UniProtKB/TrEMBL annotation:
Homology family: Belongs to the CPA3 antiporters (TC 2.A.63) subunit F family.
Signal peptide: none
Organism: Actinomadura logoneensis
A cellular component term, taken from the record's GO annotations: plasma membrane
Keywords associated with the record: Cell membrane, Membrane, Transmembrane, Transmembrane helix, Transport
Protein name: Cation:proton antiporter
UniProt-annotated location(s): Cell membrane
InterPro entries listed in its UniProt record: MrpF/PhaF-like
Amino acid sequence: MSTLYLVVAIAEAAVAALLTVRLGLGPTTCDRIVALNALTTQAMLALLFFAAYADRTGYLDAALWPASFGYLGTIIWARYLERGLL
């Protein structure tokens, strides 16, 4: 079962790498914001599955912080876009 966790963590990291390309090439600001939000989610999932693989609980805290700040950052960017400040 732990091998499955490692395979899923590597797959999530690969998806995060593809989202990094989308973040750089996004034609609009909205596309980049969505890519950044998805990137933080994929990075969190990769860390969670790696924590399950390594049987370490310390990685759980490291996964939850970026996820919460990524969500908060998406809300802040959306507010700026809504008000026309960008």
